[in-house]
Automatic annotation (TrEMBL):
Name of the protein: Proline--tRNA ligase
Entry's localization field: Cytoplasm
GO CC entries: aminoacyl-tRNA synthetase multienzyme complex; cytoplasm
Annotated organism of origin: Hymenobacter cyanobacteriorum
Gene: proS
Family (UniProt): Belongs to the class-II aminoacyl-tRNA synthetase family. ProS type 3 subfamily.
């Protein structure tokens, strides 16, 4: 194996970047600001995608696909949305290249191939989707319209970090239309719950559900709901958003329906999404200085078997291992048998530890003769000998235990790094000395929020949904505050 990873304590940012690369998740590409998601990383994303897709379909949603390009006039139709994304847009202006007469073997943009109207490469798809919905919705019988798409989007970024912020990334975006505001709000809240359930049950990532302030709201939304998670360096990461759009896009694109009384009304909309940023959250929330720590439900390989043998013994040993391998597979467990004869066991142990495989079995002929198997769990590094007769059931239960332990460990970390603060001085001190979630009162004004952000680089992550209101006074201005907000520095 290559030299050890930097530690989280030494340089958290470098540790993260090196881990993502060395574990084979992703790497920087030849295109500035973009990444290549490697097979092992994409396998994790596929498991996320498959689970989320099942959850969306269980709640009545269908998948569709809409164009990558959005005519500028459509993009401009909802002004707040256009203004909010304008600085991040990649724009197509020409449709053809030609050989360069001045530079043999080179190409140039054909000056005669200018588009009549520029095309925006989608940073989000509300414009193209709502312009389509106008043709799909005529009557209350056409509602609700519950559509999701899996796609890539482009948001021009110069300062990038693998998974967390790249110019192009993968995501899903749900876009729904409803007959009433109440239905649309219920949809927005339901999808927030779906995201929270996925984060906690599958990513083993505890999250806070809340509402964004107007300053942090999605451009073009009436309300933005979010789930916020805490990473091991005390910074917050927004792990998913769900937006109540009101009638803003319906009015911008004139999406109307005839209600049961025959009266025409504009529909009410929502949009919601999570992206490959979740991969970054998965790495940062759980991993350690030896490598990835993956929750079993999302691990591409849940169990690795490393044969321990002397020269000439491998084939016979593999025959004896096969029933264990097949028994695990029959239980629905993904298994990798690492029978490479080019690497020593120690190398293999370190490699699979780096890749975060939840359970490792080291099996030699002597172990099998004794009716035992050496088992190591990745989350705690605990090594144990378990009876061969019950090994499949034992490993199955161990995977469940590991999933639970990883979640509880992250939950304990969050609890230890969530602090109620009452003074601005304490707020600033905690951000520097013991970063995490800070629950603090502020007066709710955009001006105070901006001041805090400018002076401390901390933002209001959300106004929590499931916590009791508690009146107090703003730590900055001394004005009344109806409730505490979650603050943190964030990715």
């Amino acid at each position: 194996m290559s030299k050890k990873l930097p530690t989280r304590q030494e340089d958290y940012s470098l540790w993260y970047n090196e881990l993502v690369k060395r574990a084979g998740l992703a790497e920087n590409s030849a295109v500035r600001g973009c990444m290549v998601i490697k097979p092992y990383g994409y396998a994790i994303w596929e498991k996320m995608q498959r689970q989320l897709d099942d959850m969306f379909k269980r709640t009545g949603h269908e998948n569709a696909y809409f164009p990558l390009f959005v005519p500028k006039s459509l993009f401009e139709a909802e002004e707040k949305n256009a203004e909010g994304f304008a600085k991040e847009c990649a724009v197509v202006t020409h449709y053809r290249l030609q050989t360069d007469p001045d530079k043999p073997g080179k190409l140039r943009v054909d000056p005669n191939a200018k588009l009549e109207e520029e095309l925006v490469v989608r940073p989000t798809s509300e414009a193209i989707i709502w312009s389509t919905y106008k043709n799909w919705v005529q009557s209350y019988r056409d509602l609700p319209l519950l559509i999701n798409q899996w796609a890539n989007v482009v948001r021009w970024e110069m300062r990038t970090r693998l998974f967390l912020r790249t110019a192009e990334f993968l995501w899903q975006e749900g876009h729904t239309a409803h007959a009433t505001a109440e239905e649309a709000v219920a949809e927005t809240r339901q999808m927030l719950d779906v995201y929270a359930e996925f984060a906690e049950e599958h990513m083993a990532l505890p999250v806070v559900k809340g509402v964004k302030t107007p300053n942090e709201r999605f451009a073009g939304a009436e309300d933005t709901y979010c789930i916020e998670a805490l990473m091991q360096d005390g910074k917050a990461l927004q792990a998913g958003t769900s937006h109540f759009l009101g009638q803003n896009f319906a009015k911008a694109f004139d999406v109307q329906f005839a209600n049961k009384e025959g009266v025409r009304e504009h529909v009410w909309g929502t949009s919601w999404g999570v992206s490959t940023r979740l991969m970054g959250a998965l790495v940062m929330a759980h991993s350690d200085d030896e490598g990835l720590v993956l929750p079993p439900k999302l691990a591409p390989i849940q169990v690795v078997i490393v044969p321990i043998y002397k020269t000439g013994e491998l084939d016979a040993l593999l025959e004896r291992i096969k029933p264990i391998q097949m028994g695990l597979i029959a239980r629905g467990i993904s298994v990798k048998l690492d029978a490479r004869d080019t690497e020593r066991p120690g190398f293999k142990f370190a490699e699979w530890e780096l890749k975060g495989v939840p359970v490792r079995l080291a099996i030699g002929a002597r172990d099998l003769d004794a009716g035992m198997v050496e088992v190591v769990r990745r989350d705690t590094k605990q090594k144990m000998s378990l009876p061969l007769a019950d090994i499949v059931a034992s490993v199955d239960q161990l995977l469940t235990d590991i999933q639970t332990n990883i979640y509880e460990r992250a939950k304990s970390f969050r609890a230890a790094h969530t602090t109620r603060v009452d003074s601005y001085d304490e707020f600033k001190r905690m951000l520097d000395e013991e970063p995490g979630f800070l629950l603090a009162h502020y007066d709710g004004t955009s001006e105070t929020e901006e001041r805090i952000k400018e002076e401390t680089k901390a933002t209001v992550r959300c106004l929590p949904l499931n916590e009791a209101d508690e009146e107090g006074i703003c730590m900055v201005t001394g004005k009344p505050s109806p409730r505490r907000a979650y603050f943190a520095r964030a990715y």
